[in-house]
Design brief:
- It is a single chain.
- By secondary structure, this protein is α+β, with helices and mostly antiparallel strands.
- 13% of the residues lie in helices and 24% in strands.
- Strands 1-2 form a two-stranded antiparallel sheet. Strands 3-4 form a two-stranded parallel sheet.
- Strand 1 and strand 2 form a beta hairpin.
- It is globular and about 45 Å long.
């Protein structure tokens, strides 16, 4: 999420724009605004930009679940919170 915080809003995602960026190691960067962040949109963006069976590294966001059927998917958990099923 990027954007300026409004006064008194704290870290509210409501005041920020969701953006997804994909980086190829040693290569280019592709980014796009993602008005609705959900599993369908995240996975579709990857399908549209990444060759099948490529290695894909993501964070542990629940929306990336299922990528292992099309890609060599590796994920990293950045925090101690439990992800929803």
């Amino acid at each position: 999420f990027i954007g300026r915080l409004k006064e008194g809003k704290g870290q509210s995602k409501v005041t920020k724009l969701p953006v997804m960026a994909m980086v190829q190691r040693g290569g280019s960067v592709r980014s796009q605004v993602m008005p609705t962040v959900n599993g369908l949109n995240l996975k579709q963006a990857i399908r549209d930009n990444v060759a099948v069976f490529s290695q894909v590294h993501t964070d542990a966001h629940w929306g990336y679940r299922g990528l292992e059927h099309e890609f060599d998917h590796k994920s990293v958990k950045h925090c101690g919170r439990i992800q929803p099923p």
